[in-house]
Amino acid sequence: MPTLSDSHDDGPLIRIRGLRTVLNGKTIFDGVDLDIPRGGITAIMGPSGTGKTTLMRHITGQLAPDAGAISVDGLEVGRIDRDALFALREKIGYLFQNSALLTDYSVFENVAFPLRQHLKLPEEIVRNIVLTKLQAVGLRGAAELMPSELSGGMVRRVALARAIVRDPMMIIYDEPFVGLDPIALNQILKLIRTLNQTLGITSILVAHELAAVRRVADHIYLLAGGKIVAHGVPEDLARGETPWTRQFFSGEADGPVPFHYPAPDYATQLGLSSAGRDAATLTPPLDPRAAPPSPALRARDEGVAARHPEPKA
């Protein structure tokens, strides 16, 4: 069996095996295995709080798992040194959920920012690269505008131009469809597919919207309960042939992901069961006079007394 440190150009760009992560006593991943192929568009979906963003942090080396191995482009992320990790991150573009534009910078300077931070290029080269990327997202004419002058869809496209300004091998899209109107949504979907096809960029979508995802994704992984509960092409998962896919893609309120958060027995808490009645009998009622008044109540009472003093005898 090949090790994760072996690089294969025709193999998956990302290979994860036996991933286990526990945060604050909660198991986020419990033996997760997945592959993300080169040059494809892979969607990571699942209910809120199932660790989709945490998975992206593992892939980019921001968070170490408790167990398991993560390989990106043939490099095992947990075993490379700091310089190699930074070099790997420079090959990854990231589209943040809130776009994260620098509000005091123009559109042009936002896109130019990674070039100025990491490379020492002549200004003419910087200008040509930035204008090329803005042209790719349809916003070359907005180069001198400020972020406050842009619509939500335009902000997302500027952030995408910045994400591709250094020609990354992979882009991670964190909730790219949130808050977009139908026109802006279609523009972003078109850009994701176009960039994937023309530049050969591997794309990872973290999203909830199946209708949008199925229009661009080649493969979907559904995360829930710390595991991959389903994966496949969008058309197969959309049929909802398992309880997990049926609940998630149909939007059912109850199912494998329960409507009620785990809690003690309801009747017992209300004192309606025999155990609850016994507990209520053994627990004396609280005398409100026994508890000291709060500062707010004390101040109120003192104010009332000052306004209505007792008559002198």
Give an overview of the whole structure.
It is a single chain. With 313 residues, the protein is an alpha/beta fold. It has one domain: Rossmann fold. 38% of the residues lie in helices and 19% in strands. The protein contains twelve helices and ten strands. The strands form two sheets. A six-stranded mixed sheet has the order 6-7-8-3-9-10. The chain has a four-stranded antiparallel sheet with strand order 2-1-4-5, covered by helices on one side. A hairpin with a 2-residue loop joins strand 4 and strand 5. The protein is globular, with a radius of gyration of 27 Å. The N terminus is likely disordered.
Question: How would you sum up this structure in a few lines?
Answer:
The protein has 12 helices and 10 strands.
Main attributes?
alpha/beta, single chain, 12 helices, Rossmann fold, globular, four-stranded antiparallel β-sheet, 313 residues
- Kindly identify the CATH topology: Rossmann fold
CATH architecture: 3-Layer(aba) Sandwich
Using DSSP, what is the number of strands? 10
Considering DSSP H and I runs of 4 or more, what fraction of the residues is helical?
25-40%
Instruction: Please tell me what the overall shape is.
Output: globular
Tally of individual domains: 1
- Strand % is 15-25%
The biggest beta sheet reads: 6 strands, mixed
CATH hierarchy class name: Alpha Beta
Query: Over the alpha carbons, how many angstroms does the gyration radius reach?
Result: 27 Å
Average pLDDT number: 82
Helix-strand topology string: EEEHEEHEHHHEHEHEEHHHHH
* CATH superfamily (homologous) name: P-loop containing nucleotide triphosphate hydrolases
User: What oligomeric state best describes the polypeptide chains here?
Assistant: single chain
